[in-house]
Write a structure and sequence with these properties.
single chain; mainly beta; six-stranded antiparallel β-sheet; 6 strands
Length: about 170
């Protein structure tokens, strides 16, 4: 097991609302080998390869049978910054290190081997560091790159910390 620990503050997400959301991999009740994990109880990782290039890290968020998930779009580096810099070949001072879902996953070292993992386990987990943002500090905008989802593309289910430099573009409110 790789003992390199990296962590970041989640500063941008997108929500996907299961079978009724045209942008969701589970839209219409689709069940494939790749998406079956979405139908699990929440607290499990859903990692998939996008465009054959980038691994994207999602968190399954509902109860068994309801395929809801949240995509982690960006993180602010917190722990293991030197490791992230090596993985991304860029300094943590540059937002590109973890801005966007592919970059965030790569900075954290998340690949397909992290799919279907319990997020309360000891390989990949989510911790509460007591960092809080007020409602006024969070923007809710349409999701990115889901134009194919027609009216569902306009839903304000992308959430990000206003003014955080690690948020992917566009981050206009």
């Amino acid at each position: 097991m790789n003992k390199k620990i990296t962590a970041g503050i989640i500063v941008e997400t997108e929500a996907y609302f299961g079978i009724q959301d045209k942008a969701s991999h589970a839209y219409g009740g689709r069940r494939t080998n790749r998406t079956e994990i979405m139908y699990s109880n929440g607290g499990i990782s859903y990692v998939y390869l996008c465009y054959g290039i980038h691994h994207l890290f999602n968190i399954v968020t509902s109860v068994e049978g309801e395929p809801h998930a949240v995509l982690i779009r960006a993180i602010e580096p917190l722990t293991g910054k030197d490791i992230m810099e090596e993985r991304r070949n860029t300094p943590c001072s540059k937002s590109a290190i973890s801005s966007g879902p592919g970059s965030a996953a790569k900075a954290l070292g998340i690949d397909a081997s992290f799919n279907k993992k319990d997020l309360a386990g000891d390989e990949i987990w989510i911790e509460d560091h007591g960092i809080r943002y007020s409602e006024e500090e969070i923007a809710a905008t349409p999701r990115v790159g889901v134009a194919y989802a027609q009216e569902d593309a306009l839903l304000p289910w992308r959430f990000f910390v206003k003014g955080n430099k690690y948020v992917s573009k566009p981050n206009k409110v």
